[in-house]
Amino acid sequence: MEMRDLTKSALTLPWAMSMFGVQQMANLMSPDRLAGTAKAFDAVSDVTAQQLDGWLKQTYQVGNGVQRTLVDIMMLRPPDIDSSALMRMAAEMQSGPVFQAVVKYGMPPVGWLDSFLVARKDSPAVAQEFTNKLHVIMLVTQVHHQLGLDDGNTETLLALVAKAAELEMFPRLWAVEGLGNYVGDQALARSDGAPVAGLLTDPAVAALPPWSMTMLHAGIGMSFAKHVLKRLEPSSPAEDVMAAIAEFVSLCRHSSRPAYAGAALESLGLAARTLYPNLMLLIDTHIPSVDPELQGYFWHGAGRAMYFEPMNMLPSVNAPWRSIRRLDQEAPHDLARRNILSGLAWALTVVNMRQPLVMETFLRHHGDLAEEDDAFVNGVTSALLMRYDTTREDAWIRPFIHYEPRGGDEALTARWRTVITTPCERALSRTYRELSESHSLEQLFHYRPAR
Amino acid sequence: MREIAKSMLGFSWAVSLFGVQQISKALSPSASEPEAATVAEFEEVSRAVQSHLSGDTAARFQAGDQWTRNLVDVVFDAATWQSFDARRIAESLDPRPVIEVDPRKWAETGVTMFQQSVNAVRQAVTPAAS
Question: Domain limits of chain A?
Answer without folding.
Answer: 58-74+83-91, 92-445
